[in-house]
Design brief:
The chain has 266 residues and is α/β, with parallel strands linked by helices. The chain contains 8 helices and 7 strands, in the order E-H-E-H-E-H-E-H-E-H-E-H-H-H-E. It has a 7-stranded parallel sheet, with helices on both faces. The radius of gyration is 18 Å and the shape is globular. The structure holds nicotinamide-adenine-dinucleotide. Nicotinamide-adenine-dinucleotide (NAD) is lined by residues 12-13, 15-19, 37-39, 59-62, 87-90, 116, 120, 143, 145-146, 190-193, 195-197.
Length: 266
């Protein structure tokens, strides 16, 4: 028996990076996977890279009408959902004009980041719960960030939105438990995972290689993580192996959050 055999899973922001790795792993462990994204060209290509039962659907996580339409379609086709991975997220560095520091922040850019990262997760929980009540055992996994647990002076909207995702996850977990719904909800906090999200911060060619080395040097495990590192955490939380786990935050960050970068002198 594979680890999520027979489960129906919806993953947002699944055209690339962490979302795609989660889609590939859940499908290989027996789930039927609905990949969704706003990048339809890449999404359709990525769907072909997922071995097993999968389909690609357009979904802008910030648009409620799109959640309504897609979950209506999933209900017609499958009757319910067992897994929702609220993964879509942006830093705002490429998608908005910024700036993103506390003193000079641009309010429209701040709102844009929150609309995607926070509203998107809140809507994913709202429409997920509706279809998950009909499941035997369901799980919502919200992808927050290390940046939701510590201050990030150069990316305040990103950090604020991810902190809100962490807290919303716990409210959803307790709400579902109080209602007696068969739905758990947990957050994952990745840190320094090498994906296209970093493109705007790393540059190109030799400059990129040097930047990656510099980031890795500050990670206790001395390496940047891979999308698969996060996917295995999502698989655990999505599967019934974690049936007694709700409202937790799971760090996948090579040890960054375990302590301080400024180590005591030897
Ligand atoms: P990525 O940029 O490679 O992929 C993000 C995907 O989300 C893209 O395919 C993009 O098209 C999609 N997307 C953007 N806006 C969307 C919207 N409105 N609706 C639907 N899809 C949308 O990023 P990634 O590194 O794979 O990040 C995935 C998640 O992990 C994000 O929430 C990110 O904040 C979080 N995260 C990543 C890291 C890291 O180091 N890479 C660290 C902490 C948290």
């Amino acid at each position: 028996m594979r680890r999520v055999e027979g489960k129906i899973a919806l993953i947002t922001g699944a055209a690339r990076g962490i979302g795609l790795a989660i889609a590939q792993l859940l499908a290989s462990e027996g789930a039927t996977v609905i990949l969704s994204d706003i990048n339809d060209e890449l999404g359709a290509k990525s769907e072909r890279e997922v071995a097993g039962n999968s389909e690609y659907q357009h979904l802008d996580v910030a648009v409620e009408a799109e959640w309504q339409a897609l979950t209506d379609e999933i209900e017609r086709k499958y009757g319910h959902l067992d897994i929702v991975i609220n993964n879509a997220g942006i830093t705002g560095f490429l998608e908005t004009s910024g700036p993103h520091d506390p003193e000079n922040l641009d309010l429209a850019s701040w709102h844009h980041v929150h609309t995607t990262n926070l509203d998107g997760v809140a809507l994913g929980c709202k429409y997920g719960i509706r279809l998950m009540k009909a499941s035997d055992r369901a799980s919502i996994v919200n992808i927050s960030s290390r940046s939701g647990l510590v201050g990030i002076p150069a990316a305040v909207a990103y950090a604020s939105s991810k902190a809100a995702v962490r807290n919303h996850t716990k409210s959803v977990a307790l709400y579902c438990a109080e209602k007696g719904y068969p739905i758990r909800c947990n957050s994952i906090h990745p840190g320094a995972i090498l994906t296209p999200l970093w493109d705007a911060m790393l540059g190109e060619g030799e400059q990129k290689e040097a930047a990656i080395k510099g980031i890795a040097a500050d990670v206790p495990l001395k390496v940047m993580g891979t999308p698969e590192d996060v996917a295995y955490a999502a698989l655990y939380l999505a599967s019934d192996e974690s049936k007694y786990v709700t409202g937790i935050e799971l760090n996948v960050d090579g040890g960054i959050l375990a302590g301080s970068v400024a180590a005591p002198s030897k």
